[in-house]
Every structure is written in C-alpha cells, then in structure tokens.
Write a structure and sequence with these properties.
- The chain is 45% helix and 0% strand.
- It contains 4 helices and no strands.
- By secondary structure, the chain is mostly helical.
- It has helices spanning 4-7, 17-26, 45-48, 51-61.
- The chain is globular and about 25 Å long.
- Helix 2 (17-26) packs across helix 4.
- It binds protoporphyrin IX containing FE.
- Protoporphyrin IX containing FE is lined by residues 1, 4, 7, 11, 21, 24, 28, 32-33, 36, 40-42, 57, 61.
Length: 65
C-alpha cells in the first residue's frame, strides 16, 4: 500500500482519493487494480468494521504517500 495516497485519486476517472479509498474497503471488487485477481481482498469490512473504523482507515491510508 506504499504510495496509495498518491495514486488513489487517479485510479478511477472522476473519483476522488477519499471516494476510491472508501470504496476499496467497502466494495473491494468495484475496482480491482489491473493484473490483480478479484476476490482477494476481504469482502466483509462493511459488516465487520464500524463507520468510524472505516473513516479512520481511510485517514491512515491517506498518509501513505
Ligand atoms: C485492513 C486491511 C486492508 C486494507 C486497509 C486494504 C486496502 C486496500 C486498498 C486501499 C487497495 C487499493 C490499492 C491501490 O489502488 O493501489 C487494496 C488492494 C488490494 N488488496 Fe487490500 N486491504 C486490506 C486487506 C487485504 C488483505 C487481507 C488482502 C489479501 C490477503 C488484500 C489484498 C489486496 C489485493 C490483491 C489488492 C489489489 C487488487 C484489488 O484492487 O482488489 N488486502 N487494498
């Protein structure tokens, strides 16, 4: 995940880094990084983490420049 903060805003056209990072946790298959298989990321963070925990993870990921 090193550098994810720098590339998150350009993975999906028109979608912000915040949006992309949130989506990557809540719905990992919505966009899968090219050359990676789908269904590797855990698919249940939306159930197992609270909204606060998701927000905290996104804030942390944004520090990985
Ligand atoms: C709290 C734990 C995790 C966080 C915060 C997280 C976060 C992320 C994020 C932000 C991306 C997008 C990276 C990018 O666009 O450059 C990603 C992709 C990926 N993650 Fe995770 N992840 C977690 C756990 C895992 C686990 C446990 C696995 C596998 C055992 C995994 C496998 C992958 C793979 C293969 C990708 C690339 C394919 C894709 O886009 O889905 N992740 N992850």
């Amino acid at each position: 995940l090193k550098g994810v903060a720098s590339r998150a805003g350009s993975r999906e056209p028109g979608k912000s880094a915040d949006y992309y990072l949130h989506e990557s946790l809540m719905a990992p298959n919505a966009f899968v990084v090219p050359n990676f298989p789908a269904n590797v990321m855990p698919q249940n963070f939306a159930q197992t983490l609270s909204a606060q925990q998701i927000d905290d993870l996104v804030a942390y990921l944004k520090t990985l420049k």
